[in-house]
Amino acid sequence: MDGTHLSPQAHQRLSEELEWRSGPRRSEISQWIERAREHGDIKENADYDAAKNEQGHNEARIRHLEALLRTAVIVEGTADDVVGPGVVVEILMAGDDEPVQYLVGSIEERHDTYDVLSVSSPLGQALLGAEVGAVVSYEAPRTGKQISVEVVGIRSLD
User: Fold this and answer.
1) How high is the pLDDT of residue 6?
2) Is there a contact between 87 and 76 (Cβ–Cβ < 8 Å)?
3) Every domain of the chain and the residues it spans
4) Which of 127, 133, 126, 128 is nearest to 152 (CA)?
5) What are phi and psi of 138, to 5 degrees?
6) Domain 77-156 has CATH 3.10.50.30
7) Environment class of residue 45 by beta-carbon count within 10 Å: exposed (0-12), middle (13-18) or buried (19+)?
8) pLDDT block averages, 10 residues each, the chain of length 158
9) Whole-model pTM?
10) What are the residues whose beta carbons fall under 8 Å from the beta carbon of 40, sequence distance 6 or more?
């Protein structure tokens, strides 16, 4: 799948974070660095080191967000009859009694109710395009074992 699949809400949240990190946050860190420089020798200045460290983290997140948003594909959800980005899928793992539900999407998605199943994960890849009743298998990353999963429900995210 090309690009990162994001819900409109996730795209908006990440765009707002980028705006904040590029503007107000960058200025706050700059001021922090200036105040720390006023304390004297920067070679042994813990406050200066902390500010520079935070600046590095902020700039890295800005670069990550810019790249992510540049290639983002905004999805409203797919048809309710196939697994794809933006839908909630209910699956039953072989040997389990209770099904579990996941929001299919990007790791940048956040949801209060559902854990997110990345479309780039082995399980996410196996489920893409599956319909209710389908049994798919995937290789568990750590053990290498084949695991079977049945799709018991698919619905749009409300």
Assistant:
1) 81
2) no
3) 5-73, 77-156
4) 133
5) -145, 160
6) yes
7) middle
8) 75 94 97 89 85 96 95 74 87 91 84 86 92 93 91 85
9) 0.70
10) none
